[in-house]
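Researcher: Here's the sequence for the chain we discussed earlier.
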Amino acid sequence: MAPSHVRLRPAPRPRLRSIPTGSEADQRARYSRSLGPCPGRDPKYDYDPTSGPLAELFTTIADIIDLGVPTGTLKVDHLAWGRWCEFCLEMKTSTWRTDQPANSGADPAGFQREAKLLCAFLLWVYNRIQPRSKADPAPKPESAYSMVCAVRRVHRRNNISMVSCTQLSAVLKGLTASFIIEHGAEALLPTRRQPLGPHLLRQLLGGVPATQTGQRLGSQRLDWAAPLFQSLGAMFALAGSTGFRKAEVALPSGCAFDDRRLSRASVLWRINGVVYADPPPALLEALVPRRDYAVIKPPRSKADQDGTKFGALPIYLIFDPSDPINAPSWLQRLELRLPCHGSDRKSRPLFTEDHLGRAPMSHATVDRLLGLLLRAFLPEDEAKVYSFHSFRVGFACALLAAGCDPATIQALARWRSTESLAIYARLNPADYAAWVSKALSQTTDSITTRRLPRLPLLDEFDLMATFATADAIFTRVQR
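Model: Thanks. This is the structure I predict for it:
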């Protein structure tokens, strides 16, 4: 039986209590004032960061730091900080844990106080979060632990090191064991999107009757020569041969188009050995198969916030119009159908959803049309396991099936690591294009354990594996 004091099913999420405006800023200011004069310290190094003509510099430090944090991370941190504030309000204690002797362990009693506070927050937030998926019977302990990590990040960005304790890991392991006892070890396995590999991509782009020009697609008529579907087809073909993320090729809701998305200037052409940033139509029409390349400059991304890593390393895709999923062939038709020249190429999105080729393709449009296309030839229960991320998964799986080593897969798919960057930098155009071409000839039918059919009961071997599962989860979240 699970411990009676741990509620494994989440309680209804309470309304956040009203936190006075400016309370966070006030506490941060009090922390800043603590950096002022201190007995026993040489006063010539002291200064008051809260007054004077340069005070604004100090108040904007945190905002400037936040600019360097990925948007997704900031959203998680904002959510976690709201929960932390609510928790601390109930505990009648400060949200900013600035007692450094306690955090460092120099004050043993304070260390115990800070450690128990974090442990209590882990249990408190676990009872309030909801499962990420309707298929999950309860929230996973790792999700609650991520809230603790987010609170740590907020403190760290404000130059505060919170307490680090082994008791927190023990609480997480206990939560995980309780979860396994009630819901089984299989419920801890992640639900991953299935790979959308070359075979399925060919069906998607007109390889079956249901996705060919003239077929009804929702309220629209499918026409791969129309600007909308030409952009969509080029996007899918490019994603299937590069692993671009959706945020790199389409525009999230509420965002302005910027250099985090592919523009027309992101595409160059290597024609007969010469690279052109803006080739005339005659040159594009005369591309030679297996000789000429589309050269793609990756935009800034969550793995390359300033664009200095992958943005400096172009992607080479060989032109081969005989392959229906060849990205350069789709891009050639897009360039000729919606011409864009000169400085306009920098501000014009590569993929658009209007007939003029100006309105950026939105996430909502991509998701809607991808779902309709998949459901046109797949049963509902099969179609729903795919999303745009499936292109990225499919690209990696296809490379693996083609015999590509893991480090090179990391490089080609632009996963950030020192080792992969070194390999990526040495890939010449022919090598890069050869791996992509070989990958697009593979069949990817891998499946995650979570997608396998389940038996109603676990056997004794599953029960023996529960504690190993708990240890694995804690090891992963600690990295």
